[in-house]
Known about the structure:
Blueprint: E1 3-9, H1 17-31, E2 36-42, H2 44-48, H3 55-72, E3 80-83, H4 88-98, H5 103-107, H6 110-118, H7 127-130, H8 132-142, E4 147-149, H9 155-171, E5 181-183, H10 188-191, H11 216-224, H12 245-253, H13 257-269, H14 274-300, H15 303-332
Parallel strand pairs: 1-2, 2-3, 4-5
Helix pairs in contact: 3-14, 4-8, 4-15, 8-9, 11-14, 12-14
Amino acid sequence: MKQVVLTGDRPTGKLHLGHYIGSLKRRLELQKNDSYQPFVMIADMQALTDNAHDPDKIRHSLVEVALDYLSVGLDPAITTIFVQSQIPALSELTMYYMNLVSISRVERNPTVKTEIKQKTFSGGVPAGFVVYPISQAADITAFKAKFVPVGVDQLPMIEQAREIVRSFNTTYQTDCLVEPEAIIPKDDLSGRLPGTDGNAKMSKSLGNGIYLSDDQDTVRRKVMSMYTDPGHIHVNDPGKVEGNTVFQYLDVFGEDKQHITELKEHYQAGGLGDVTVKQYLFEVLDELLSPIRQRRRELAGDLPAVYRVLLEGSGRANAVAEQTLAEVRRAIGVNYFDAG
């Protein structure tokens, strides 16, 4: 029996290289493995927890994220791509789970605490944002996902989902919910690709990302402006590779490891300019992004087909979630009108 894997993204903008190396690449690997049944969710309801007053942003980003998914190679015939808000069972499951989690427990969630500090909520923190770990538990358990690929910073969310599963199964003396396990990135850089400005994380809000949809000139411009070693003023100056964003990207995306090692040694010894290294990085990234960019242009020419993928995927996902919801209702005893 195939093991279900669930992943997803908030539709708050186009996806960038951080998304690619942190999750999309892993999804492509899982898609090729017959042992797994992958589900990928566009989490529009979760995105609304801190964008409730700008729904157009979510609506517009929905198709952009779908285009990114399909352009990198997610195959809707294998991977079920669906929209969170189109699965009514998720909201009902969330309500049931909320009764099993205290407010103080949610507020102690380290991921929630960190993200609240990062956000600027002018009118106070929305209740939906505070309790979104419970909503995530509903997302995961609705599809009986055994594995959930996440970054290290999201591990508290998975642990909370595990607690909810144990609490539900114990309270209602059932085994209908599956306890999920996290799959974390293979290395730190894959889990948190730095921004082009040297910031610790590539982020839409910081404007320091290279997007999968960026054209060739834009990618070149962004690479050429990347943060390197501020002490490497002249070509002949010895340079540092530690903390140098260009070399960090080469470590992640470059396939010719021997050549990268030689570049590092030359750079550290002096005599190698930043422009030369950046040009090589641009060539590496352009080789990766060119086919993605081309495929995205083709897909964007037939948006109705992209929406059909989301509609059909949501239909398949809804059937699975409804089955889980029926089991949950029976376990609780609220299946009042079931035949027999």
